[in-house]
Amino acid sequence: VLQSDNTLYHIIALNVFIFVAIGLLNVFFSLFATPTGDGNLSITYYIYHYLGLNPDLGTFITRPWSLFTYMFVHSFSDFFHIIFNMLILYWFGRIFQEFLGNRKLLVTYLLGGLSGGFLYLMMFQLPYFQPMVNHGTFLVGASAGVLAVLVAAATLVPDYEIRLIFFGSVKIKYVALFLVLMD
Fold first, then answer.
1. CA–CA distance, 58 with 61 (Å, rounded to integer)
2. C-beta neighbour count of 68 within 10 angstroms
3. Is residue 16 within 8 Å of 82, Cβ to Cβ?
4. Contact by Cβ (8 Å): 53, 145
5. Which are the contacts of 125, defined by CB distance < 8 A and separation ≥ 6?
6. pTM, entire model
7. 75 to 32, 37, 51, 177, 183: CA distances (angstroms)
8. What sign for the dihedral angle of Cα 40, 43, 48, 49?
9. Chain-wide mean pLDDT for the chain?
10. What's the CA gap between 25 and 45, in Å, rounded?
11. What is the 3-state secondary structure (H, E, C) of the chain?
12. Which of these, 3, 24, 113, 171, could form a disulfide with 145 (CB 3.0-4.6 Å)?
């Protein structure tokens, strides 16, 4: 049951709802698809195309909302991506909420996502990444917002200890460092 005043649960629910909705739309459209000359592109392609963050600045200018929407859309090619994102958000979001509350959690999540999106756009303007820009590359996922909450919690209370299976008590600054390096 969602608590009406718990931002953390709302962020997680929105991410999961969109993931499930896209999956159901994909199944529905796959069942009733008719053969076409376009290689039967799935509905998820179109959703990612319009809601995912495209690194091409010309495309981004025509879809500025994607800087916000990409952080709520997850890829079906890696189911564990959304699972781990939401688990990390839940665990560290609760610690963050305990000390700073709901409003700052939402602001941190959104600013982290926006910052990650801007960084993605800037990185793809570098010559090394230019050949990949027009090959269907786009960004989806909540990782930037989740990592913002994770780093904020670890910065706020670095010596806060959590218990991990096989490791025992570990300070969250080390968990955060490990997860950031892994990502």
1. 5
2. 14
3. yes
4. no
5. 55, 57
6. 0.85
7. 22, 25, 12, 25, 16
8. positive
9. 86
10. 11
11. CCCCCCHHHHHHHHHHHHHHHHHHHHHHHHHCCCCCCCCCCCHHHHHHHHHCECCCHHHHHHCCCHHHHHHHCCCCCCHHHHHHHHHHHHHHHHHHHHHHCHHHHHHHHHHHHHHHHHHHHHHCCCCCCHHHCCCCCCECCCHHHHHHHHHHHHHHCCCCEEEECCCEEEEHHHHHHHHHHHC
12. 113
What backbone phi and psi angles, to 5 degrees, belong to 53? -90, 110
State the residue for tokens 């990650």.
Answer: 116
pLDDT score for 131: 66
Helical packing angle, 7-31 and 79-100, nearest 10°? 160
Give the pair of three-digit tokens for residue 134: 């027009």
Cα distances (angstroms) measured from residue 152 to each of 97, 159, 181: 11, 13, 15
55, 76, 133, 170 from 128: Cα distances, Å: 13, 28, 10, 39
Asked if 143 and 113 count as a contact pair (C-beta separation under 8 A), the reply is no
Q: Which two tokens stand for residue 29?
A: 């459209």
